[in-house]
Amino acid sequence: MDTQWPRWEVFKQDAPGKPHQAVGSVHAADPEHALLTARNVFARRPQAVSMWVVRAEEVFSWTKEEIAQDPALRGESRPALGSRPTTYLVFRKTSHKRSMTFVDHVGEVEAYSPQGALREALARFSDAEGLVWWVVPAEKVYKSDPSQETVESWFDPAKEKTYKQQQYYATVSASRPKRRKEDEAFGEGCAHC
Amino acid sequence: MPGRYGVPTDPDYQERLAEFEARIRRGEKIEPGDWMPEEYRRQLIRMISQHAHSEVVGMLPEGAWITRAPTLKRKMILVAKVQDEAGHGQYLYHAAETLGISREAMLEALLSGKAKYSSIFNYPTLTWADIGTIGWLVDGAAIKNQTMLAQCSYGPYSRAMVRICAEETFHHKQGKEMVLLYAQGTPKQRAMAQDAINRWWWPALMMLGPHDKDSPNTEVLVRWGIKTKTNDQVRQEFINEHAPEILAAGLSIPDPELRYDEKSGNWLHGPINWDEFWQVVSGNGPMNKERLEARRRAHAEGAWVREALEAYAAKQKKAAVAV
Ligand SMILES: [Fe+2]
Ligand SMILES: [Fe+2]
Question: pTM for the complete prediction?
Protein backbone atom coordinates (compact mmCIF):
# COMPACT_ATOMS: atom_id res chain seq x y z
CA MET A 1 0.00 0.00 0.00
CA ASP A 2 1.29 3.44 -0.89
CA THR A 3 1.69 6.19 1.65
CA GLN A 4 -1.24 8.51 1.95
CA TRP A 5 -1.09 12.17 0.99
CA PRO A 6 -1.11 14.82 3.70
CA ARG A 7 -4.43 15.87 5.17
CA TRP A 8 -5.77 19.39 4.64
CA GLU A 9 -8.52 21.06 6.62
CA VAL A 10 -11.09 22.78 4.40
CA PHE A 11 -13.00 26.01 5.01
CA LYS A 12 -15.93 27.11 2.87
CA GLN A 13 -17.57 30.50 2.56
CA ASP A 14 -21.23 30.38 1.50
CA ALA A 15 -21.63 34.03 0.44
CA PRO A 16 -19.67 37.29 0.54
CA GLY A 17 -19.66 38.71 4.05
CA LYS A 18 -20.27 35.32 5.69
CA PRO A 19 -17.49 33.63 7.66
CA HIS A 20 -15.38 30.80 6.26
CA GLN A 21 -16.45 27.65 8.12
CA ALA A 22 -14.58 24.39 8.70
CA VAL A 23 -16.40 21.67 6.76
CA GLY A 24 -14.03 18.69 6.90
CA SER A 25 -10.76 17.57 5.38
CA VAL A 26 -9.27 16.13 2.21
CA HIS A 27 -6.02 14.37 1.34
CA ALA A 28 -3.95 15.99 -1.39
CA ALA A 29 -0.40 16.20 -2.69
CA ASP A 30 -0.13 20.01 -2.84
CA PRO A 31 -2.21 23.15 -2.14
CA GLU A 32 -3.67 23.38 -5.65
CA HIS A 33 -4.70 19.73 -5.56
CA ALA A 34 -6.17 20.26 -2.09
CA LEU A 35 -8.31 23.21 -3.25
CA LEU A 36 -9.60 21.32 -6.29
CA THR A 37 -10.42 18.25 -4.23
CA ALA A 38 -12.06 20.42 -1.58
CA ARG A 39 -14.29 21.94 -4.22
CA ASN A 40 -15.31 18.53 -5.59
CA VAL A 41 -16.01 17.13 -2.14
CA PHE A 42 -17.62 20.10 -0.36
CA ALA A 43 -19.15 22.32 -3.06
CA ARG A 44 -21.27 19.95 -5.12
CA ARG A 45 -24.26 21.97 -3.90
CA PRO A 46 -24.78 25.71 -3.71
CA GLN A 47 -23.81 27.93 -1.89
CA ALA A 48 -20.10 28.61 -2.07
CA VAL A 49 -18.01 31.58 -3.17
CA SER A 50 -14.60 30.85 -1.65
CA MET A 51 -12.58 28.00 -0.15
CA TRP A 52 -9.46 27.87 2.02
CA VAL A 53 -7.23 24.90 2.77
CA VAL A 54 -4.47 24.42 5.33
CA ARG A 55 -2.32 21.41 6.23
CA ALA A 56 -3.93 19.68 9.21
CA GLU A 57 -0.72 19.86 11.26
CA GLU A 58 -0.75 23.68 10.99
CA VAL A 59 -4.05 23.80 12.87
CA PHE A 60 -3.80 24.32 16.65
CA SER A 61 -6.98 23.28 18.37
CA TRP A 62 -8.34 23.47 21.91
CA THR A 63 -11.71 22.47 23.30
CA LYS A 64 -13.29 24.28 26.25
CA GLU A 65 -12.44 21.22 28.34
CA GLU A 66 -8.77 21.31 27.34
CA ILE A 67 -8.51 25.03 28.08
CA ALA A 68 -10.10 24.53 31.50
CA GLN A 69 -7.52 21.87 32.33
CA ASP A 70 -4.46 23.81 31.22
CA PRO A 71 -3.91 26.83 33.51
CA ALA A 72 -0.74 27.76 31.56
CA LEU A 73 -2.97 28.87 28.69
CA ARG A 74 -4.49 31.65 30.75
CA GLY A 75 -1.21 33.28 31.79
CA GLU A 76 0.49 36.30 30.24
CA SER A 77 2.09 36.08 26.81
CA ARG A 78 5.88 36.52 26.98
CA PRO A 79 7.51 37.12 23.60
CA ALA A 80 11.03 35.80 23.14
CA LEU A 81 13.57 38.60 22.88
CA GLY A 82 13.85 40.02 19.37
CA SER A 83 11.13 37.82 17.86
CA ARG A 84 8.42 39.20 15.58
CA PRO A 85 4.75 38.35 15.97
CA THR A 86 2.91 36.14 13.49
CA THR A 87 -0.62 36.68 12.20
CA TYR A 88 -2.99 33.87 13.13
CA LEU A 89 -6.50 33.29 11.83
CA VAL A 90 -8.92 32.48 14.63
CA PHE A 91 -11.87 30.09 14.31
CA ARG A 92 -14.45 29.34 16.96
CA LYS A 93 -17.41 27.04 17.61
CA THR A 94 -20.09 28.41 19.93
CA SER A 95 -23.05 26.02 19.79
CA HIS A 96 -23.91 22.39 20.46
CA LYS A 97 -26.77 22.62 17.98
CA ARG A 98 -26.96 20.23 15.04
CA SER A 99 -24.87 21.64 12.22
CA MET A 100 -22.96 20.60 9.11
CA THR A 101 -20.13 23.03 9.85
CA PHE A 102 -17.61 23.13 12.70
CA VAL A 103 -15.64 26.26 13.68
CA ASP A 104 -16.30 29.69 12.10
CA HIS A 105 -13.67 32.26 11.16
CA VAL A 106 -13.98 35.16 13.62
CA GLY A 107 -10.87 37.25 12.88
CA GLU A 108 -7.10 37.58 13.19
CA VAL A 109 -4.67 38.08 16.05
CA GLU A 110 -0.95 38.82 16.24
CA ALA A 111 1.01 36.56 18.57
CA TYR A 112 4.39 34.94 19.20
CA SER A 113 3.11 31.37 19.45
CA PRO A 114 -0.09 29.41 18.87
CA GLN A 115 -0.68 29.40 22.63
CA GLY A 116 -0.23 33.18 22.64
CA ALA A 117 -2.68 33.44 19.75
CA LEU A 118 -5.25 31.46 21.73
CA ARG A 119 -4.80 33.75 24.76
CA GLU A 120 -5.28 36.78 22.51
CA ALA A 121 -8.33 35.20 20.92
CA LEU A 122 -9.93 34.38 24.29
CA ALA A 123 -9.57 38.03 25.28
CA ARG A 124 -10.56 39.56 21.95
CA PHE A 125 -13.50 37.36 20.97
CA SER A 126 -15.28 37.15 24.29
CA ASP A 127 -18.76 38.00 22.94
CA ALA A 128 -19.72 34.32 23.06
CA GLU A 129 -18.32 31.30 24.84
CA GLY A 130 -15.99 29.24 22.65
CA LEU A 131 -16.58 25.50 22.80
CA VAL A 132 -13.71 24.84 20.37
CA TRP A 133 -10.96 27.22 19.22
CA TRP A 134 -8.65 26.87 16.24
CA VAL A 135 -5.70 29.14 15.46
CA VAL A 136 -3.88 28.84 12.16
CA PRO A 137 -0.82 30.80 10.94
CA ALA A 138 -2.19 33.07 8.18
CA GLU A 139 0.76 32.39 5.88
CA LYS A 140 -0.04 28.66 5.82
CA VAL A 141 -3.55 29.15 4.45
CA TYR A 142 -4.13 28.71 0.70
CA LYS A 143 -7.17 30.42 -0.77
CA SER A 144 -9.18 29.85 -3.93
CA ASP A 145 -8.77 32.52 -6.61
CA PRO A 146 -11.23 35.35 -5.78
CA SER A 147 -11.53 36.59 -9.40
CA GLN A 148 -15.09 36.57 -10.68
CA GLU A 149 -14.13 34.27 -13.51
CA THR A 150 -12.84 31.56 -11.17
CA VAL A 151 -15.67 31.97 -8.69
CA GLU A 152 -18.19 31.49 -11.50
CA SER A 153 -16.47 28.51 -13.08
CA TRP A 154 -15.91 26.80 -9.73
CA PHE A 155 -19.19 27.42 -7.98
CA ASP A 156 -21.93 28.35 -10.46
CA PRO A 157 -22.46 24.96 -12.17
CA ALA A 158 -23.84 23.56 -8.90
CA LYS A 159 -26.62 26.16 -9.03
CA GLU A 160 -27.82 24.97 -12.43
CA LYS A 161 -28.07 21.33 -11.39
CA THR A 162 -31.52 21.80 -9.91
CA TYR A 163 -32.23 18.06 -10.09
CA LYS A 164 -29.93 17.67 -7.06
CA GLN A 165 -32.38 19.70 -4.99
CA GLN A 166 -35.18 17.87 -3.27
CA GLN A 167 -37.63 20.64 -4.24
CA TYR A 168 -37.27 19.42 -7.82
CA TYR A 169 -39.23 16.32 -6.80
CA ALA A 170 -41.78 18.15 -4.65
CA THR A 171 -44.67 16.95 -6.78
CA VAL A 172 -43.98 13.24 -6.22
CA SER A 173 -46.91 11.41 -4.68
CA ALA A 174 -47.71 7.74 -4.59
CA SER A 175 -51.11 8.07 -6.18
CA ARG A 176 -50.39 10.41 -9.08
CA PRO A 177 -46.86 11.49 -9.96
CA LYS A 178 -46.93 14.69 -11.99
CA ARG A 179 -44.84 14.97 -15.09
CA ARG A 180 -42.94 18.20 -15.29
CA LYS A 181 -42.08 20.11 -18.43
CA GLU A 182 -38.38 19.34 -17.88
CA ASP A 183 -39.08 15.63 -18.30
CA GLU A 184 -39.99 16.20 -21.90
CA ALA A 185 -37.22 18.72 -22.51
CA PHE A 186 -34.60 16.30 -21.16
CA GLY A 187 -36.12 13.43 -23.10
CA GLU A 188 -35.65 15.25 -26.37
CA GLY A 189 -32.08 16.29 -25.59
CA CYS A 190 -30.81 18.72 -23.01
CA ALA A 191 -30.96 22.40 -23.98
CA HIS A 192 -27.49 23.02 -22.53
CA CYS A 193 -25.64 20.33 -24.43
CA MET B 1 -2.45 14.36 25.04
CA PRO B 2 -2.13 11.80 27.84
CA GLY B 3 -5.32 10.29 29.15
CA ARG B 4 -7.51 11.68 26.40
CA TYR B 5 -8.88 8.19 25.76
CA GLY B 6 -9.76 6.78 29.16
CA VAL B 7 -9.60 3.11 30.16
CA PRO B 8 -11.19 1.57 33.28
CA THR B 9 -7.76 1.04 34.90
CA ASP B 10 -7.09 4.82 34.95
CA PRO B 11 -7.31 6.08 38.56
CA ASP B 12 -9.68 8.89 37.53
CA TYR B 13 -11.75 6.80 35.08
CA GLN B 14 -14.98 6.60 37.08
CA GLU B 15 -14.95 10.29 37.86
CA ARG B 16 -14.28 11.31 34.27
CA LEU B 17 -16.78 8.82 32.90
CA ALA B 18 -19.46 10.39 35.12
CA GLU B 19 -18.58 13.87 33.76
CA PHE B 20 -18.57 12.53 30.21
CA GLU B 21 -21.98 10.88 30.56
CA ALA B 22 -23.38 14.02 32.19
CA ARG B 23 -22.19 16.05 29.20
CA ILE B 24 -23.98 13.67 26.86
CA ARG B 25 -27.17 13.86 28.90
CA ARG B 26 -27.02 17.67 28.66
CA GLY B 27 -26.92 17.34 24.85
CA GLU B 28 -23.34 18.57 24.51
CA LYS B 29 -21.24 17.40 21.58
CA ILE B 30 -17.98 15.58 22.31
CA GLU B 31 -15.23 17.06 20.13
CA PRO B 32 -11.71 15.87 19.17
CA GLY B 33 -9.45 16.74 22.10
CA ASP B 34 -12.11 16.09 24.73
CA TRP B 35 -11.76 13.18 27.15
CA MET B 36 -13.70 10.09 26.05
CA PRO B 37 -13.68 6.41 27.02
CA GLU B 38 -11.45 4.31 24.77
CA GLU B 39 -14.51 2.11 24.23
CA TYR B 40 -16.49 5.12 22.89
CA ARG B 41 -13.64 5.80 20.47
CA ARG B 42 -13.45 2.13 19.42
CA GLN B 43 -17.18 1.86 18.77
CA LEU B 44 -17.15 5.09 16.76
CA ILE B 45 -14.21 4.02 14.62
CA ARG B 46 -15.93 0.70 13.95
CA MET B 47 -19.24 2.32 12.99
CA ILE B 48 -17.91 5.31 11.05
CA SER B 49 -15.38 3.34 9.01
CA GLN B 50 -17.97 0.68 8.12
CA HIS B 51 -20.29 3.48 7.15
CA ALA B 52 -17.60 5.11 4.98
CA HIS B 53 -16.82 1.81 3.25
CA SER B 54 -20.55 1.34 2.56
CA GLU B 55 -20.72 4.69 0.77
CA VAL B 56 -17.68 3.78 -1.34
CA VAL B 57 -18.79 0.24 -2.22
CA GLY B 58 -22.32 1.58 -2.69
CA MET B 59 -21.16 3.38 -5.83
CA LEU B 60 -20.57 0.07 -7.61
CA PRO B 61 -24.07 -1.39 -8.10
CA GLU B 62 -25.40 1.96 -9.36
CA GLY B 63 -22.30 3.06 -11.25
CA ALA B 64 -22.73 -0.02 -13.43
CA TRP B 65 -25.89 1.53 -14.89
CA ILE B 66 -24.60 5.03 -15.75
CA THR B 67 -23.83 4.07 -19.35
CA ARG B 68 -27.24 2.40 -19.72
CA ALA B 69 -29.48 5.16 -18.33
CA PRO B 70 -32.55 5.50 -20.59
CA THR B 71 -32.49 9.31 -20.94
CA LEU B 72 -29.98 12.11 -20.54
CA LYS B 73 -31.93 13.40 -17.56
CA ARG B 74 -31.73 10.05 -15.76
CA LYS B 75 -28.06 9.76 -16.61
CA MET B 76 -27.27 13.19 -15.12
CA ILE B 77 -29.23 12.34 -11.99
CA LEU B 78 -27.44 9.02 -11.58
CA VAL B 79 -23.99 10.55 -12.14
CA ALA B 80 -24.77 13.18 -9.50
CA LYS B 81 -26.00 10.55 -7.05
CA VAL B 82 -22.94 8.33 -7.47
CA GLN B 83 -20.71 11.41 -7.07
CA ASP B 84 -22.55 12.21 -3.85
CA GLU B 85 -21.86 8.72 -2.49
CA ALA B 86 -18.15 9.23 -3.16
CA GLY B 87 -18.41 12.49 -1.23
CA HIS B 88 -20.21 10.77 1.64
CA GLY B 89 -17.34 8.30 1.91
CA GLN B 90 -14.94 11.26 2.13
CA TYR B 91 -16.94 13.04 4.86
CA LEU B 92 -17.03 9.85 6.89
CA TYR B 93 -13.36 8.91 6.53
CA HIS B 94 -12.63 12.45 7.74
CA ALA B 95 -14.86 11.95 10.80
CA ALA B 96 -13.07 8.68 11.64
CA GLU B 97 -9.65 10.30 11.19
CA THR B 98 -10.45 12.76 14.00
CA LEU B 99 -10.30 9.72 16.31
CA GLY B 100 -6.70 9.01 15.38
CA ILE B 101 -7.06 6.27 12.77
CA SER B 102 -5.44 6.90 9.38
CA ARG B 103 -7.32 6.81 6.11
CA GLU B 104 -4.67 4.46 4.80
CA ALA B 105 -5.37 1.96 7.58
CA MET B 106 -9.10 2.09 6.84
CA LEU B 107 -8.61 1.62 3.09
CA GLU B 108 -6.23 -1.22 3.76
CA ALA B 109 -8.90 -2.90 5.93
CA LEU B 110 -11.44 -2.51 3.13
CA LEU B 111 -9.21 -3.78 0.33
CA SER B 112 -7.92 -6.73 2.36
CA GLY B 113 -11.49 -7.83 3.02
CA LYS B 114 -11.07 -7.40 6.78
CA ALA B 115 -13.53 -4.49 7.05
CA LYS B 116 -17.29 -4.85 6.86
CA TYR B 117 -19.63 -2.70 4.81
CA SER B 118 -23.39 -2.69 4.40
CA SER B 119 -24.80 -6.07 3.38
CA ILE B 120 -27.12 -4.43 0.85
CA PHE B 121 -24.38 -3.69 -1.67
CA ASN B 122 -23.66 -7.37 -2.15
CA TYR B 123 -26.86 -7.82 -4.16
CA PRO B 124 -26.81 -7.42 -7.96
CA THR B 125 -28.58 -4.68 -9.94
CA LEU B 126 -30.35 -6.68 -12.66
CA THR B 127 -32.58 -4.12 -14.40
CA TRP B 128 -32.88 -0.35 -14.70
CA ALA B 129 -35.81 -0.42 -12.24
CA ASP B 130 -33.30 -1.51 -9.59
CA ILE B 131 -31.78 1.97 -9.78
CA GLY B 132 -35.08 3.61 -8.87
CA THR B 133 -35.77 1.01 -6.21
CA ILE B 134 -32.35 1.45 -4.62
CA GLY B 135 -32.99 5.20 -4.38
CA TRP B 136 -36.43 4.73 -2.90
CA LEU B 137 -35.83 1.80 -0.53
CA VAL B 138 -32.08 1.58 0.11
CA ASP B 139 -31.40 5.31 0.36
CA GLY B 140 -34.78 5.54 2.12
CA ALA B 141 -33.62 3.09 4.79
CA ALA B 142 -30.22 4.78 4.98
CA ILE B 143 -31.86 8.18 5.57
CA LYS B 144 -33.83 6.84 8.55
CA ASN B 145 -30.58 5.60 10.07
CA GLN B 146 -28.62 8.72 9.17
CA THR B 147 -31.26 11.14 10.48
CA MET B 148 -30.95 9.33 13.80
CA LEU B 149 -27.13 9.47 13.65
CA ALA B 150 -27.23 13.22 12.92
CA GLN B 151 -28.13 13.52 16.65
CA CYS B 152 -24.98 11.59 17.57
CA SER B 153 -23.00 12.84 20.59
CA TYR B 154 -19.71 12.85 18.65
CA GLY B 155 -19.44 16.19 16.83
CA PRO B 156 -17.57 15.11 13.66
CA TYR B 157 -19.89 12.12 13.02
CA SER B 158 -22.98 14.22 13.65
CA ARG B 159 -21.82 16.94 11.24
CA ALA B 160 -21.02 14.42 8.52
CA MET B 161 -24.50 12.98 8.94
CA VAL B 162 -26.24 16.36 8.74
CA ARG B 163 -24.39 17.08 5.48
CA ILE B 164 -25.18 13.62 4.13
CA CYS B 165 -28.88 13.74 5.04
CA ALA B 166 -29.31 17.01 3.12
CA GLU B 167 -28.01 15.25 0.00
CA GLU B 168 -29.68 11.89 0.54
CA THR B 169 -33.14 13.35 0.27
CA PHE B 170 -32.48 13.89 -3.43
CA HIS B 171 -31.40 10.25 -3.79
CA HIS B 172 -34.60 9.09 -2.15
CA LYS B 173 -36.92 11.37 -4.14
CA GLN B 174 -35.46 10.64 -7.56
CA GLY B 175 -35.80 6.90 -6.91
CA LYS B 176 -39.31 7.17 -5.61
CA GLU B 177 -40.35 9.29 -8.57
CA MET B 178 -38.88 6.79 -11.01
CA VAL B 179 -40.60 3.75 -9.47
CA LEU B 180 -43.95 5.56 -9.22
CA LEU B 181 -43.76 6.49 -12.91
CA TYR B 182 -43.04 2.88 -13.89
CA ALA B 183 -45.86 1.69 -11.62
CA GLN B 184 -48.21 3.75 -13.82
CA GLY B 185 -46.52 2.86 -17.07
CA THR B 186 -46.85 0.01 -19.54
CA PRO B 187 -47.44 -3.54 -18.25
CA LYS B 188 -43.77 -4.26 -18.92
CA GLN B 189 -42.65 -1.24 -16.87
CA ARG B 190 -45.00 -2.21 -14.04
CA ALA B 191 -43.66 -5.75 -14.02
CA MET B 192 -40.08 -4.46 -13.95
CA ALA B 193 -40.85 -2.17 -10.99
CA GLN B 194 -42.61 -4.98 -9.13
CA ASP B 195 -39.74 -7.38 -9.73
CA ALA B 196 -37.29 -4.84 -8.32
CA ILE B 197 -39.42 -4.24 -5.21
CA ASN B 198 -39.67 -8.02 -4.74
CA ARG B 199 -35.89 -8.39 -4.71
CA TRP B 200 -34.96 -5.28 -2.66
CA TRP B 201 -37.64 -5.21 0.04
CA TRP B 202 -36.12 -7.80 2.38
CA PRO B 203 -32.48 -6.75 1.92
CA ALA B 204 -33.59 -3.16 2.72
CA LEU B 205 -35.13 -4.34 6.01
CA MET B 206 -32.02 -6.37 6.82
CA MET B 207 -29.59 -3.54 6.15
CA LEU B 208 -30.91 -1.76 9.24
CA GLY B 209 -29.23 -4.45 11.31
CA PRO B 210 -30.13 -7.40 13.55
CA HIS B 211 -33.05 -7.24 15.97
CA ASP B 212 -32.32 -5.38 19.22
CA LYS B 213 -32.15 -8.64 21.18
CA ASP B 214 -29.34 -9.84 18.87
CA SER B 215 -27.47 -6.55 18.83
CA PRO B 216 -25.12 -6.60 21.84
CA ASN B 217 -23.63 -3.14 21.16
CA THR B 218 -26.94 -1.29 21.24
CA GLU B 219 -27.10 -0.66 25.00
CA VAL B 220 -23.79 1.16 25.27
CA LEU B 221 -24.27 2.94 21.95
CA VAL B 222 -27.56 4.39 23.15
CA ARG B 223 -26.20 5.27 26.62
CA TRP B 224 -23.34 7.25 25.07
CA GLY B 225 -25.57 8.96 22.55
CA ILE B 226 -23.84 7.41 19.54
CA LYS B 227 -27.20 6.01 18.53
CA THR B 228 -30.42 7.59 19.70
CA LYS B 229 -32.70 4.79 18.44
CA THR B 230 -32.39 1.02 18.18
CA ASN B 231 -32.28 -1.00 14.95
CA ASP B 232 -35.87 -2.19 15.42
CA GLN B 233 -37.13 1.35 16.01
CA VAL B 234 -35.45 2.63 12.86
CA ARG B 235 -36.71 -0.35 10.86
CA GLN B 236 -40.27 0.30 12.08
CA GLU B 237 -40.04 3.94 10.97
CA PHE B 238 -38.84 2.81 7.56
CA ILE B 239 -41.69 0.31 7.11
CA ASN B 240 -44.32 2.74 8.38
CA GLU B 241 -43.34 5.27 5.73
CA HIS B 242 -42.66 2.99 2.78
CA ALA B 243 -45.17 0.14 3.03
CA PRO B 244 -48.28 2.31 2.58
CA GLU B 245 -46.64 4.23 -0.27
CA ILE B 246 -45.67 1.09 -2.18
CA LEU B 247 -49.18 -0.30 -1.77
CA ALA B 248 -50.79 3.02 -2.78
CA ALA B 249 -48.77 2.89 -6.00
CA GLY B 250 -50.53 -0.38 -6.82
CA LEU B 251 -47.40 -2.45 -6.19
CA SER B 252 -47.22 -5.34 -3.75
CA ILE B 253 -44.75 -6.18 -0.99
CA PRO B 254 -43.26 -9.70 -0.85
CA ASP B 255 -44.31 -10.32 2.75
CA PRO B 256 -47.60 -12.25 3.14
CA GLU B 257 -47.65 -11.43 6.85
CA LEU B 258 -47.30 -7.68 6.46
CA ARG B 259 -50.28 -5.90 8.02
CA TYR B 260 -51.29 -2.63 9.61
CA ASP B 261 -51.82 -2.83 13.35
CA GLU B 262 -54.51 -0.35 14.42
CA LYS B 263 -53.53 -0.48 18.06
CA SER B 264 -49.89 0.50 17.71
CA GLY B 265 -50.23 2.38 14.42
CA ASN B 266 -47.38 0.26 13.07
CA TRP B 267 -47.01 -1.89 9.98
CA LEU B 268 -45.98 -5.30 11.28
CA HIS B 269 -43.73 -7.50 9.16
CA GLY B 270 -43.22 -11.26 8.94
CA PRO B 271 -40.01 -13.02 10.03
CA ILE B 272 -36.77 -11.82 8.45
CA ASN B 273 -34.42 -14.43 7.01
CA TRP B 274 -31.40 -13.68 9.19
CA ASP B 275 -29.51 -16.69 7.85
CA GLU B 276 -29.36 -14.88 4.53
CA PHE B 277 -28.21 -11.69 6.27
CA TRP B 278 -25.35 -13.43 8.12
CA GLN B 279 -24.33 -15.29 4.97
CA VAL B 280 -24.03 -11.99 3.10
CA VAL B 281 -22.25 -10.25 5.99
CA SER B 282 -19.72 -13.05 6.28
CA GLY B 283 -18.79 -12.78 2.61
CA ASN B 284 -21.09 -15.27 0.88
CA GLY B 285 -23.56 -12.85 -0.69
CA PRO B 286 -24.17 -12.93 -4.44
CA MET B 287 -21.74 -10.08 -5.17
CA ASN B 288 -19.21 -9.92 -2.28
CA LYS B 289 -16.29 -11.17 -4.36
CA GLU B 290 -17.01 -8.95 -7.32
CA ARG B 291 -17.39 -5.82 -5.20
CA LEU B 292 -14.08 -6.34 -3.48
CA GLU B 293 -12.33 -7.15 -6.73
CA ALA B 294 -13.73 -3.99 -8.32
CA ARG B 295 -12.40 -1.88 -5.43
CA ARG B 296 -8.97 -3.52 -5.62
CA ARG B 297 -8.82 -3.07 -9.37
CA ALA B 298 -9.77 0.62 -9.07
CA HIS B 299 -7.08 1.12 -6.43
CA ALA B 300 -4.41 -0.63 -8.49
CA GLU B 301 -5.36 1.09 -11.74
CA GLY B 302 -5.29 4.48 -10.01
CA ALA B 303 -1.75 3.97 -8.73
CA TRP B 304 -0.16 5.85 -11.64
CA VAL B 305 -2.38 8.88 -10.97
CA ARG B 306 -1.26 8.98 -7.36
CA GLU B 307 2.37 8.63 -8.39
CA ALA B 308 2.05 11.39 -10.99
CA LEU B 309 0.43 13.79 -8.52
CA GLU B 310 3.13 13.09 -5.97
CA ALA B 311 5.88 13.68 -8.52
CA TYR B 312 4.22 16.95 -9.56
CA ALA B 313 3.95 18.08 -5.92
CA ALA B 314 7.63 17.27 -5.34
CA LYS B 315 8.58 19.29 -8.43
CA GLN B 316 6.52 22.28 -7.24
CA LYS B 317 8.17 22.11 -3.85
CA LYS B 318 11.64 22.05 -5.39
CA ALA B 319 10.79 25.01 -7.63
CA ALA B 320 9.46 26.94 -4.62
CA VAL B 321 12.68 26.30 -2.68
CA ALA B 322 14.81 27.38 -5.66
CA VAL B 323 13.02 30.77 -5.92
FE1 LIG C 1 -24.79 8.16 0.80
FE1 LIG D 1 -27.47 7.92 -1.15
Answer: 0.93
